Amino acid sequence: MTVLWASVKQAKLAIKSWMHCYNEKRPHQALQYRSPRQFRQEQCLQVT
User: Fold this and answer.
1) Could you give the number of structural domains in the chain?
2) How far is CA 6 from CA 9, 10, 11, 20, 23, in A?
3) What is the pLDDT of residue 1?
């Protein structure tokens, strides 16, 4: 898949969006295949 952006700004926004998804929404093996968001929510529930 080849993607071309009209500007550097558009490319940066696309990369930022991808990084957010990769780091926040994607399941991580180290977190027992939960997303970091799910992991944090579960940790907060255990504390309260």
Assistant:
1) 1
2) 8, 7, 8, 22, 26
3) 73
Per residue in 1-48, pLDDT (tens digit) is: 788 899 999 999 999 999 999 888 999 999 999 999 999 999 998 876
Residue 1 in any domain: the answer is: no
**How far apart are the C-alpha atoms of 3 and 37, rounded to whole Å?**
28
Backbone φ, ψ for residue 28 (5° rounding): -115, 135
Q: Which is nearest to 39 in space by CA: 26, 48, 10?
A: 26
pLDDT in tens, 37-48: 999 999 998 876
Does the residue 39 lie in any domain? Answer: yes
**Structure tokens, 45:** 């529930």
